[in-house]
Amino acid sequence: MYDAVEREAQAPAAGPAPVRLGGCVLDAPVVLAPMAGYTHLPFRRLCRRHGAALVYTELTSVDALVRDVPASWRLLATDPAERPVVAHLYGHRPEVFAEAARRVEALGAFVAIDINAGCPVPKIVARGAGAGLLRDLRRLEAVVRSVRDAVRLPVTVKTRIGMQSGRGAPEDILRAVEAGGADAVAFHARVTAERHRGPADWAALARLKALARIPVFGNGGASTAARAVAMLTETGVDAVMIGRGALGNPWIFAQARARLAGQPAPPPTFAEREAALREHLEGLVALWRAAPRRRARRARGELDPESSAARQFRAQLIHYMAGLPGALEMRRGLNDIHTPADILAAVARVREVRKP
User: Fold this and answer.
1) 296 vs 92: which has the higher pLDDT
2) d(Cα 127, Cα 13) in Å, to the nearest integer?
3) Residue 127 to residue 133: CA distance in whole angstroms
4) Spacing of C-alpha 125 from chain mean position
5) Contact 228, 206 (CB under 8 A)
6) How far apart are CA 55 and CA 292, in angstroms?
7) DSSP assignment, residue 17?
8) For residues 99 and 104, what is the distance between their CA atoms, to the nearest angstrom?
9) Which pTM was predicted?
10) What contacts 290, CB < 8 A, 6 or more positions away?
11) Whole-number CA gyration radius for the chain
């Protein structure tokens, strides 16, 4: 089974040919996957600096964009330091997708529009969005075609290899995506019912790549740089899309690039972890401070941006400190962290535990 054990690259891998999305040519076959709640602007900037060839925004509702919901448009905030970046959208109505895509393209900030057809969250699936699109491949094809007809930007799709094991063929999903006119497709190598559990089916990725007429990105099971390179070499996908393996670890992209070049891929030092963590946290605080609606609520004493950012950052903190002495004790006190100062104090305690 492809995903059974941790693999180390035995020799430098040549890697696939560069992927082109319209006028954007990726300089490496490693990209950051979209993740709701995680791939906000500060994190995307870090990942780009550390080697991600392409980054994706958080999951953003096309219905909310068309209704001009400010919070949804803020999810698409970007800056030159993170580009090239792809807008990652979800919904289920082709006409709404088309209108939202036109508005997103008009921002002039993105190199592609990505359609989510793989989110396994039940409330999204129940509305026929995300992985819910896999229940009706004619609708999926219609959504892709509606966006393709609405914009000049490349149109891509992120999906899964099916809803449930043994039901439906991932090849049918590929055919629907291609028939709709997509320029590339990313497959998470698990079915919707598995979410992120169990082994990823890399054999399915290899079959899909062999059949595809468009570039195929592989996702699922690439938890380390070694495994990202293994996915590329074993499945033949054009690029590997790294998600959870990048949390608290933006260096995974540089490490994968180094392995592809046959060079050493050292882990980050504690000082590097702490510096990245501080930058990430400061960027998140800035996002909370900048939101106009949040400023008004703060003036009424209803919301504190520093505390809000700190609460959101807790999950990231776990990943940044994972595997270090003192990290388990820090995790036990996670509910006592309410401010950026609390986060930095927790990091300082882990630093002290590491000292001889």
Assistant:
1) 92
2) 42
3) 9
4) 18
5) no
6) 26
7) P
8) 9
9) 0.89
10) none
11) 20
| Predicted confidence (pLDDT) per residue in 133-149, tens digit | 999 999 999 999 999 99
Structure tokens at 11: 């020799």
Print burial letters for 198-230: b (CB count within 10 Å at least 16), e (below 16).
eebbbebbbbbbeebebbbbbbbbbbbbbbbbb
| pLDDT digit string, tens, across residues 47-77 | 999 999 999 999 999 999 999 999 899 999 9
The Cα 158–Cα 73 span in angstroms is: 20
**Distance between CA 267 and CA 252 in Å, rounded?**
9
Looking up tokens 């495994």 gives 227
Q: Please, are residues 144 and 205 in contact by the beta-carbon 8 Å criterion?
A: no
| Cα 155 to Cα 99: distance, rounded to the nearest angstrom | 14
Q: What is the pLDDT of residue 94?
A: 97
Pairing of the two strands 155-160 and 112-117: parallel
Partners of 321 in the beta sheet? none
The one-letter code for the residue type at 122 is P
Strands 20-21 and 24-25: antiparallel
Determine how many CB atoms are found less than 10 A away from the CB of residue 353.
Answer: 13
Cis peptide, bond prior to residue 94, ω within 30 of zero: no
Q: 241, 88 in Cβ contact below 8 A?
A: no
Task: Give me the active site residues, please.
Answer: 119
Helix (H) or strand (E) holding 356: none
Mention every residue, 6+ apart, whose C-beta is less than 8 A from residue 6: 224, 226, 227
CA proximity to 287, closest of 273, 303, 306: 306
